Amino acid sequence: MYNPTVMDHFENPRNVGEIADADGMGEVGNLSCGDILRVYIKVKDNILEDVKYKTFGCGAAIASGSMLTELAKGKTVEEALAITNNTVADALGGLPPKKKHCSNLAADALHKALEDWQTKK
Amino acid sequence: MYNPTVMDHFENPRNVGEIADADGMGEVGNLSCGDILRVYIKVKDNILEDVKYKTFGCGAAIASGSMLTELAKGKTVEEALAITNNTVADALGGLPPKKKHCSNLAADALHKALEDWQTKK
Amino acid sequence: MKKVYMDHSATTPLHPEVIDLMKFAMEHVYGNPSSLYSLGQEAKKYVDEARQKVADLIGAGFDEIYFTGGGTESDNLAIQGAVYGNEKKGNHIITSAVEHPAVLDCCRNLEKKGYELTILPVDQYGMVDPEEVNKAIKKNTVLISVMHGNNENGTIQPVQEISKIAKKQGIFFHTDCVQTVGKIPVHVDDLGADLLTISSHKIYGPKGVGLLYKRKGVRVQPLIYGGGQERRIRSGTENTLGIIGFGKAAEIAARDLETENRRVKVLRDKLIKGVLEKIPQSYLNGHKEKRLPHNAHFSFAYVEGESLLLSLDMKGIAVSTGSACSSTSLQASHVLIACGQSQELVHGSIRFTLGRDNTEEDVDYVLSVLPGVVERFRSFSPLGGE
Amino acid sequence: MKKVYMDHSATTPLHPEVIDLMKFAMEHVYGNPSSLYSLGQEAKKYVDEARQKVADLIGAGFDEIYFTGGGTESDNLAIQGAVYGNEKKGNHIITSAVEHPAVLDCCRNLEKKGYELTILPVDQYGMVDPEEVNKAIKKNTVLISVMHGNNENGTIQPVQEISKIAKKQGIFFHTDCVQTVGKIPVHVDDLGADLLTISSHKIYGPKGVGLLYKRKGVRVQPLIYGGGQERRIRSGTENTLGIIGFGKAAEIAARDLETENRRVKVLRDKLIKGVLEKIPQSYLNGHKEKRLPHNAHFSFAYVEGESLLLSLDMKGIAVSTGSACSSTSLQASHVLIACGQSQELVHGSIRFTLGRDNTEEDVDYVLSVLPGVVERFRSFSPLGGE
Ligand SMILES: Cc1ncc(COP(=O)(O)O)c(C=O)c1O
Ligand SMILES: Cc1ncc(COP(=O)(O)O)c(C=O)c1O
Ligand code: FES
Ligand code: FES
After folding, report:
1. Cα–Cα distances in Å, from D53 out to C349, D161, D199, D208?
2. In this complex, which chains have at least 3 CB pairs below 8 Å with chain C?
3. Residues B76-92 pLDDT 10s
4. 10 Å Cβ neighbour count for C240?
């Protein structure tokens, strides 16, 4: 069902976990499937120094979270804001049509985390 | 589809043909299938001395005609009148349900031939 | 005893290559294609491969193929599905008098339920006149269904012309290609079909599997609801083994179409010539040129088809009479009746349909046996000959 | 890698004896059962033999069996057929919230078309209360459809009591026995069924073939019209190969029912015990005693089913999550929701269904692998554990 890149990120998800003293946290629940993804960010000098995630979600959600953290880490806030679900899905080499919304989870959670950081700042 | 007795009478039908100077002739056409069976009889001293038939009909019609002529031959007129489609079908060891009407053809044609003989007498 | 199977329009034996693949699949492909684990996805891969092969055979898109339980189901899904799925467009159906019962009885049933039905007449060859289609169209016509090649007398319909008329009026066009696919080119765009039926067991694949081609955008309501397989159009666990065999059969049909049918046509022509020469009062049914390459369909005066069939069977020759797909019914062929043939002549009709396994010897054998058999039954018959 | 298939409720591999017979049939039984010549009649004989075997399996009469293209089609034929065929009797259907989509979606579609539908609730085990059936009956109730055993949580319904109520009121009773046949005794008279569904591929027969049992005298309108096969109830050339395999599978199911299911139940009980002991916050779904002998269905808090399934697959274990028959859908199991389980817990549900090929080693292997996998995903989860 999933391509090898997705399966790799599913088997060995990068950056799973929490950041205790995170600067921002975003959680998104997906209505259509009931899954949840949470992203933690650590921002320093406008750079996303650390990005971690946790998910209660399907294979695509796990892989999307993993890919998202890899994409976002080390990016500027502006660059991070430009990451969309398509960026994630493309970086994963594509997701099955029914699983497109799973990459939304990840991108949306990141954006929420950035908002959170913005308000707290 | 047909049992061995039917197949035997189909392969080697008895008494096929016409009786040139028949005392009675009966022809029946079946509406449900379009088939036709004709019976010729020769009656002497109230006995069916000879019985012959021709048919434009299915395997069951051919076998029924054959069995009918065998059953009727040598019988008294009264005995012949008592022959029904069931008599014929039973003597053949049974016919498939959809083919019950084929034995009607034979029995009815005999009865018509007997009527014909009666009126001509 | 010599065995000659000449009823390939009724069904065909499995092609040896189909058997080989199915034997493999029986042992190794047992997952449910809807299952997410690898065993299931493996089965899905095989089903998708088959889908691509049948799509290729008829020039369709992968996503335009819907596997079903056979040609009959596909016809019903096309017709009931298009009619129920487009109730706003209209409630009038046009079909022809020579369709397979899978189309005709399905349409008649809709008529009973209140839909309007026009059954087009045919000429003596069983051919529909496109002009008649034009005349039959009403404001509320939603579907026209005319078969590609006839299963009894082998006549090929002017499907292209009919589909053009349908298209011009924005009416969906369905064509039953069960008898033509693998025999003559069948291409969904050339034929202009919105919906198209194929059955596996007529092309050396297994029975109980068929497909509906549905052009993208054509709305069809399912007949069968459930797990949502076949993109919600036909629910039910996929008949993986059947589909795999069907796919292989389609691949072979595409590969061998030309050579095989050229070969069979030569045999068929010899059969027709021989029969008409050797047997007095024998008539070829269907169109002389516009006919399926493997079909030879005759009426013999003064003999009844079933007895002929049984006698030929005793001599090892398998053929059919009347409407082969429902030969347990007693009714005379509706196709020949529609062609204006007399009831009696219709009763004496026999269909020879040749196939891969037939040789010239088979034809010679039939030609050596048939005249005597016909002659014998004529001698039993109260009709004619007097 | 060790391979453990524990998704026998999704589908089963072909039984070796079924394979042998089907291999033979592929080469030798190729006539069309409707054809009158010997090759056709020979095929008919095989189909009739299979018909007798499936009839024997469920205590039905030979003439009460109608072969179809699968369990889904049989459910649809039973429901749509009985409803359309008895419009004078009424237009209200009663079913349960835990039916397979083949029943539930079929009923919902009828509701859209204007029929009345009552969907009965179930208790926490997924059990229908016969008293609820009684209360739901109206003057215009024409059909009650309640499944025998549930395909997800394995709960066995009080079908006998429900059918008695139906009978008393002169209402037709249909029961989906796809999951129970071959697992526990299924006898049409004991169950009091007027209509009953079975699918071949759940009992080690081929996919794409099933049957509808229809008690003599029960009126059913066909879904599919055509050549009039299956005594006019289901037209279409018979899936001879599939039917032959189905017949063999039925014979084996009857023969091995007791011994095999006693064996499987022991393994299943060990699996349940082990999982509940080893994995904290794991819950057994379905009824403890009134459940199918091969079914073990769990919910694990804080984990999502698909990722569990994929991880187990990587370790060679094939199981399913949610509604297995349509696991490509994202919806959470309607069965567990109907049982009142929370969305999140439902999401972490996994079904193990054991079968002929499973051994005690398989169970031990699962018990050695599963706890770690669950633990790992819990560590990924933003839920719980905090
Ligand atoms: C023209 C035509 N349409 C439909 C069918 C039905 O297909 P199936 O036998 O797969 O049900 C047949 C053959 O039986 C046929 O010849
Ligand atoms: C209870 C139940 N009913 C019906 C079906 C559908 O049967 P089939 O897969 O043969 O279409 C299934 C399985 O898919 C089932 O588990
Ligand atoms: S299905 Fe819910 S996140 Fe993928
Ligand atoms: S079918 Fe006509 S006489 Fe038998």
Report:
1. 37, 27, 14, 18
2. B, D
3. 999 999 999 999 999 99
4. 27
- Local confidence band at C325 (pLDDT 50, 70, 90 cut-offs): very low
Rounded mean pLDDT of chain C?
95
Which entry of D107, D177, D325, D339 is annotated as an active-site residue?
A: D325
pLDDT of residue C385: 54
Token pair of C145, please? Answer: 């269904």
Does D326 score more than 70 pLDDT? no
Q: A48-64: per-residue pLDDT in tens? A: 999 999 999 999 999 99
- The C-alpha atoms of residue D355 and residue D296 are separated, in whole angstroms, by 12
pLDDT, tens digit, 9 for 90 and up, residues D370-381: 999 999 999 999
Amino acid at the residue D327? S
Taken in order C321, C327, C328, C329, is the CA torsion positive or negative? negative
Q: Do chains C and D touch (3 or more CB pairs under 8 A)?
A: yes
Which residue of C lies nearest to B52 if distances are taken between CA atoms? C380
Chain mean pLDDT for chain D: 95
Q: Please, are residues D31 and D43 in contact by the beta-carbon 8 Å criterion?
A: yes
CA distance C4 to C1: 10
In 3D space, the residue among B26, B116, B5, B9 whose CA is nearest the CA of residue B65 turns out to be B9
CA angle (C242 as vertex; C236, C246 as ends), nearest 5:
120
Report the pocket of ligand 3 as residue ranges, CB < 6 Å: A 30, 33, 35, 57-58, 60-61, 99, 102, 105; D 330
Query: What does the alpha-carbon distance between residue D8 and residue D249 come to, in Å, rounded to a whole number?
Result: 14
Nearest-CA neighbor of C81 among C242, C207, C197, C202? C197
Query: Are the C-beta atoms of residues D339 and D124 closer than 8 Å to each other?
Result: yes
C210-214 vs C65-68, strand pairing mode? antiparallel
Distance CA(B53)–CA(C173), nearest Å, equals: 52
Q: Three-state SS for A52?
A: strand
Q: How many helices (H) and strands (E) does chain A have?
A: 5, 3
Catalytic residues of A: 33, 102
Average pLDDT over residues C295-303: 95
Q: How many CB pairs (< 8 A) connect A and D? A: 51
Give per-residue burial for A13-38: e unless 16+ CB within 10 Å, then b. Answer: bbbbeebeebbbbbbbbbeebbbbbb
Q: A37 and D304 in contact by Cβ < 8 A?
A: no
Overall residue count recorded for chain A in this entry: 121
Report how far residue D183's alpha carbon sits from residue D203's, in angstroms, rounded to the nearest whole number. Answer: 9
Q: How far apart are CA D124 and CA C3, in angstroms?
A: 64
Residue D67 pLDDT grade (very low, low, confident, very high; cuts 50, 70, 90): very high
* Catalytic (active site) residue D325: yes
Reply yes or no on whether the pLDDT at B121 is more than 90.
Answer: no
Please determine, for residue A116, whether its predicted confidence score (pLDDT) is greater than 70.
yes
Of the candidates C286, C276, C279, C296, the residue with the CA atom closest to the CA atom of residue C362: C296
- Decide: helix, strand or coil at residue D313: helix
Which tokens belong to C122? 């045919």
How many residues does the structure list for chain C?
Answer: 386
Q: What is the pTM of this model?
A: 0.96
Residue D75 has pLDDT above 50, yes or no: yes
What is the per-residue pLDDT for D323?
43
Chain D within 8 Å of A29 (Cβ-Cβ)?
A: no
Angle (deg, nearest 10), helices D16-28 and C16-28: 170
> Quick check: CB of D179 below 6 Å from ligand 2?
yes
**Which of C70, C225, C321 is facing D109, going by the closest CB pair?**
C225
pLDDT classification of B98: cutoffs 50, 70, 90:
confident
Dist CA C371 CA C277 (whole Å): 10
Alpha-carbon gap, residue C123 to C121, rounded angstroms? 7
Q: Which chain B residue's Cα is nearest to C346?
A: B34
C238 secondary structure, DSSP code: -
Q: Is the pLDDT of residue D346 over 90?
A: no
